[in-house]
Specification:
Blueprint lengths: L20 E3 L3 E4 L7 E8 L17 E9 L2 E8 L3 H9 L28 E5 L2 E5 L6 E3 L6 E4 L16 E2 L6 E6 L8 E7 L5 E8 L10 E2 L3 E6 L2 E2 L2 H5 L6 E2 L5 E7 L8 E5 L3 E2 L4 E5 L2 E9 L23 E8 L9 E4 L5 E6 L10 E6 L21 E6 L5 E5 L4 E3 L3 E4 L9 E9 L4 E8 L9 E4 L10 E5 L5
Length: 485
């Protein structure tokens, strides 16, 4: 009998969906702009089989990519599993073979040494391909139009790292992809590999260096002149894995580092700045003015991931997990290894920051985030009060004025990561649309919402009403129609 655990990671809206689908002409309401021509890709963890160990965290599900194709005021939907090595081995066996999140010691002996990646963290179009990404493994290449999986890539043998980030950046001026891999020489190592790929998808630079300590290096920043790596103590060790503990745990005794690598530099050129303990994961953007580097990230006093608990046994502290958009500033001309400043930019409790990606690496004005507005009611299905990190609001922050605007999705819904789409290639910064999935918890369905990015407080201008449920998703991106058939 096939049965998933009766636990929060596998029940309610998080019940495994386990489907593939094509829906031509999704039902829509409101205005789907006719100038919106392209595809929005997003990925969700969705376990194919019940976990080998009887329980698991949501982050360990198999990747499943959704494609929303916009053209002529219509929306077409496609949804496919990412055919990783793990997925294919387990499908052939008819059961789970891989164990706990990033712990190969818990795997079935039949899959010892196999790539464990789930490709469940980001769906990233680049160089005519779609890359399904998970930071503990190489990229999986998918077809941009059909979502057919083509297998893992090492970019023609030019990528020597065993891993590749789930958060590459595109330099809008050069068309280059800038990326990295951590644990690049093997699980739990401090080794980092930094990559530049040209607009054709060819590796043109590989630079190696080490982190101050092993940690979850989930995201990074890129400026015109520098790659910027924040080292935050969500740490792991073989001792943790051997003891059956979660791969990562947060260590409140360790300092936080910011590593600055000139984009044309070598590993010996990395300079490390440090500050006191805090938590930060995703990056809104980074830019430099000469040797002064600004790095914008939601920062919390303490750990935001209760499933990666405190290494010293302290209970999860919800109040200290509130992250606010913060600017970290360092100066390469400084004689000090300390941060010049850490400035809170706005008081919204938010995460999943996004920008108009045409302004990545540069000084920019418009930022978007998911926000938990605790002043608003939240009622889970059945009338039970909700608790935890409930992202119920889309917010816009204007760096030029310091003003915010926001839209609340209601008491029985939550939101997934926003994505900005410019109205035209030459549109002004922020002149475009926001697309994002909305979870209708009471109806157990998902809508794709479309906002005018300059007026999000007015609410969505249109929606694609899927009529099916998408599990919580992590990250996604837009491909313009010119990239597609």
């Amino acid at each position: 009998m096939l049965k998933f655990p009766d636990s929060p990671s596998f029940t309610g809206f998080n019940q495994p969906a386990r489907f593939e689908a094509d829906i031509a002409d999704v039902e829509t309401e409101g205005d789907i702009p006719e100038d919106l021509d392209g595809a929005f890709y997003r990925v969700q963890p969705d376990p194919q089989y019940p976990p080998l160990l009887g329980e698991d965290i949501a982050f360990n599900g198999d990747g499943a990519v959704s494609m929303f194709r916009f053209k002529g005021g219509r929306v077409h939907f496609k949804h496919r599993w990412v055919q990783t090595d793990k997925f294919k081995l387990e499908r052939a066996a008819g059961k789970a073979l891989f164990g706990a999140y990033r712990n190969p010691l818990t795997d079935d002996p039949a899959v010892k040494g196999k790539i464990r990646g789930t490709a469940n963290t980001n769906a990233f179009p680049f160089a005519g391909k779609l890359f399904a990404l998970k930071e503990d493994s190489p990229p999986v290449v998918m077809d941009l139009n059909t979502l057919e999986s083509k297998g893992y890539t090492d970019f023609g043998g030019k990528m020597k790292s065993q891993t590749f980030t789930a958060h590459p950046k595109i330099d809008p001026e050069t068309g280059e992809m800038v990326a990295f891999g951590y644990a690049a020489k093997g699980l739990l190592t401090k080794d980092m590999a930094y990559y530049t790929l040209n607009a054709k998808g060819e590796v043109t630079r590989e630079t190696w260096f080490e982190l101050p300590y092993y940690c979850m290096m989930h995201d990074f920043g890129v400026t015109r002149d520098y790659a910027v790596f924040h080292v935050v103590p969500s740490i792991g060790s073989w001792e943790r894995l051997e003891a059956g503990l979660p791969h990562f745990g947060f260590d409140t005794t360790k300092e936080v580092y910011l590593g600055i690598l000139p984009r044309d530099g070598e590993g010996r050129d990395v300079r490390w700045f440090k500050t006191g303990n805090c938590f930060a994961s995703h990056v809104m953007n980074a830019h430099n003015v000469g040797t002064k580097i600004h790095f914008d990230t939601p920062q919390a006093k303490n750990n935001m991931f209760p499933f990666f608990p405190d290494v010293h046994g302290a209970p999860f502290n919800m109040q200290e997990a509130h992250s606010r958009l913060t600017r970290w500033t360092v100066d390469m001309n400084s004689n000090s290894d300390s941060f010049e400043s850490q400035t809170t930019l706005c008081d919204l409790f938010g995460e999943f920051p996004r920008i108009d990606d045409r302004y990545a690496t540069q000084s920019y004005r418009h930022g978007y985030m998911l926000v938990m507005d605790m002043s608003k009611p939240f009622e889970a299905p059945g009338g039970r009060s909700g608790a935890g990190l409930i992202m119920n609001t889309l917010a816009h922050y204007d760096h030029a004025t310091g003003r915010t605007q926001s839209w609340w999705c209601g008491p029985t819904s939550t939101l997934q990561e926003p994505c900005f789409v410019p109205k035209r290639a030459n549109a002004a910064e922020g002149e475009g649309y926001i697309v994002q999935v909305c979870n209708r918890l009471d109806e157990r369905v998902s809508d794709l919402l479309v906002f005018d990015a300059e007026r999000i407080a007015e609410g969505p201008i249109g929606a694609a009403k899927l009529g099916v449920r998408l599990r919580f998703g992590l990250h996604g991106n837009w491909a313009p129609g010119a990239m597609l058939n």
